[in-house]
Here is the input.
Amino acid sequence: MEIVLLANNESALPIIAKWYSDEWGYIGEGRSATELEQKLSDYLNHDKLPLIILAQDGDELLGAAQLRFHEMDIYPERKHWLGGVYVASKHRGKGIGKSLVNAIIDKAKVLGVNSINLQTEDLSGGIYKPLGWQPVEQVTYHGIKVLVMEKWL
Here is the structure.
């Protein structure tokens, strides 16, 4: 498995947009694969946010994760967010999500980020709790109960 930036594999953009639309398209507006592909073109960065990190095996895309600004408008003081952590269904349970999260943390450190936030529908903390993320609070956001978590770097 190789970890790369989306900026180094732009051909993955339509696949990621479809993954996100299929997984989270029911939340809010602007979530069709076409709309997401246009929005995600802003993530084609190497050394600034927003950016997307990919896990791939040769030409096969395994998963993706984002490092971005201000994911939840109810937390304007929380600047940096991990989002869009997605692993293709046939590759789940193999540690790819953990590798993506760790790669985002490493990239954030290089970019001088001091803390990262996330929201998860897994109110137990899911894969994030064992990786050292701390719960902030449970909220209902866009009609969905989520756990907001934070990790200091």
The chain is about 25% helix and 35% strand. The CA atoms of residues 101 and 135 lie 16 Å apart. The longest helix spans residues 96-110. The helical segments are 13-24, 33-40, 96-110.
